[in-house]
Design a protein that fits this description.
This protein is of the alpha+beta class. The chain has one domain. The protein has 1 helix and 5 strands. A hairpin with a 7-residue loop joins strand 4 and strand 5. The longest helix is centred in the C-terminal third of the chain and has 30 residues. The N and C termini lie far apart (about 45 Å).
C-alpha cells in the first residue's frame, strides 16, 4: 500500500476506471494494483494504491465500520422518535 499525496489526472489516463462516485474513483493501474483516488475539484487529487487482495481485506473492515456507524445512527434516531 502506498499513499500518493498528489496524483495528476493524466497519470490515470491509461488506467481502467473500475468504479466512481462524485468524489472518489477506483482505477486498475496494472500488476494487480488498484488506486483509490480522491478527485475533489478544490484540492490536488490524492490516492492510495492497494493490491487486489488488500482491496478485499479493506472492503471487509469498511463494511464492519459501516454497520457500526449505521447501528449508532439508527439508535440515536430511534431515541429521538421514541423517547
Amino acid at each position: 500500500m502506498k499513499l500518493v499525496t498528489a496524483i495528476d489526472a493524466n497519470v490515470l489516463a491509461d488506467a481502467t476506471l473500475i468504479a466512481e462516485s462524485n468524489e472518489f474513483a477506483i482505477y486498475d493501474v496494472g500488476s494487480d494494483t488498484y488506486a483509490l483516488v480522491h478527485r475533489h475539484a478544490a484540492v490536488e487529487w490524492q490516492a492510495i494504491t492497494i493490491s487486489g487482495d488488500a482491496l478485499f481485506r479493506v472492503l471487509e473492515i469498511l463494511a464492519q465500520a459501516t454497520r457500526t456507524l449505521y447501528r449508532d445512527v439508527a439508535s440515536d434516531l430511534s431515541k429521538l422518535q421514541h423517547p
